[in-house]
């Protein structure tokens, strides 16, 4: 018979098998929940005048000194010689646009996502509801939704030759514990019944694994590529309104400082970083809305993040700028995670943003 200490003597292979089985069970349970969710209420079809996509940004980079290799692209295929030396294009960004038949926004709306994510952020929510892309289309906005450089359909470049360092990958538990869904470190469990969700949380926890599947690797060394691509998007598409989230907060503020004549408003949903304090006066003519969710005061990082943002807000206001800060719980909207656009009350928060845009006379 196994001894009481048998668990401590489990082989690495057995431990891996047990962990894999537990995660598979979690995936199965979540997948079942996703498949069995209630059908979203029917809405009128969205009528488009046009839709399409383009790549923008990127630059040529030369690589040399690499060995020529033989590569078999498919099992059983004929080997091909691949010479990695030559000229590449790197740092390009994919943008998809949707132009509604009845446009009510006076300028286009650009959606920029956060770290480890793609434009999927604003598409269908993890539990199958329409996301903010559809919401703002229905309100008559021409929407430009992008995958930032090195994400999604924008593609990678050689690392470390072009992208320095290594990409950062997210674990299954990471966002649950850091994005104010679970109650901090250790709140995730492969067993759904043992997950410690923050009380009243609005994130669709039963569909959490569906969210994890949209996470992608990210670099921490590609800001210059990203900023260059966003700047070129602004030159091509704007004047415009830009909506940013988390990591892209830095990019949105810096681009508004660079193109204050083209950015007619900036909406920052829980920005991780803001703009250059020395250039705060550049934002004096750009209306800014900042939106924060719940549970911030008890989080390990977000009180500091928000406090730094408020220091920046003061600089902009002192320079004559207009910044509205909405802490959702103070408006009676409670339970929002860091992923506000995916929370169950995402439409309610989108309505707050839409009303602000109307007040700023950015709609017809």
TrEMBL record:
Keywords: Signal. The keyword Metal-binding does not apply. Residues 1-35 form the signal peptide. This is Esterase. The lineage of its organism: Bacteria, Pseudomonadati, Pseudomonadota, Alphaproteobacteria, Hyphomicrobiales.
């Amino acid at each position: 018979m196994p001894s009481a200490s048998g668990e401590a003597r489990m082989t690495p292979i057995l431990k891996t098998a047990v962990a894999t089985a537990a995660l598979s069970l979690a995936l199965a349970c979540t997948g079942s929940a996703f498949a069995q969710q209630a059908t979203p209420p029917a809405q009128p079809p969205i009528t488009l005048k046009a839709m399409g996509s383009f790549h923008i940004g990127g630059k040529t980079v030369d690589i040399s000194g690499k060995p020529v290799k033989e590569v078999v692209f498919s099992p059983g295929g004929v080997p091909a010689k691949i010479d990695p030396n030559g000229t590449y294009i790197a740092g390009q960004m994919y943008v998809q646009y949707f132009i509604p038949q009845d446009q009510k926004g006076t300028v286009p709306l650009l959606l920029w996502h956060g770290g480890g994510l793609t434009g999927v952020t604003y598409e269908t929510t993890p539990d199958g509801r329409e996301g903010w892309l559809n919401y703002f289309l229905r309100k008559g906005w021409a929407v430009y939704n992008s995958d930032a450089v090195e994400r999604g359909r924008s593609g990678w470049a050689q690392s470390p030759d072009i992208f320095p360092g290594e990409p950062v990958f997210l674990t299954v538990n990471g966002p649950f514990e850091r994005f104010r869904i679970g109650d901090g470190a250790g709140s995730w469990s492969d067993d759904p019944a043992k997950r410690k969700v923050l009380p009243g949380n609005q994130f669709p926890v039963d569909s959490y694994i569906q969210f994890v599947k949209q996470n992608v690797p990210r670099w921490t060394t590609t800001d210059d590529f990203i900023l260059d691509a966003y700047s070129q998007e602004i030159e091509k598409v704007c004047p415009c309104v830009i909506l940013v989230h988390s990591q892209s907060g830095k990019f949105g503020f810096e681009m508004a400082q660079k193109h204050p004549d083209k950015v007619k408003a900036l909406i920052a949903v829980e920005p991780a970083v803001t703009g250059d304090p020395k250039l705060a006066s550049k934002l004096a003519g750009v209306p800014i809305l900042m939106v924060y969710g719940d549970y911030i005061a008890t989080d390990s990082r977000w009180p500091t993040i928000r406090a730094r943002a408020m220091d920046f807000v003061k600089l902009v206001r002192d320079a004559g700028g207009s910044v509205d800060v909405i802490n959702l719980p103070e408006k009676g909207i409670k339970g929002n995670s860091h992923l506000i656009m995916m929370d169950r009350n995402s439409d309610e928060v989108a309505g707050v943003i839409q009303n602000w845009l109307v007040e700023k006379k950015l709609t017809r």
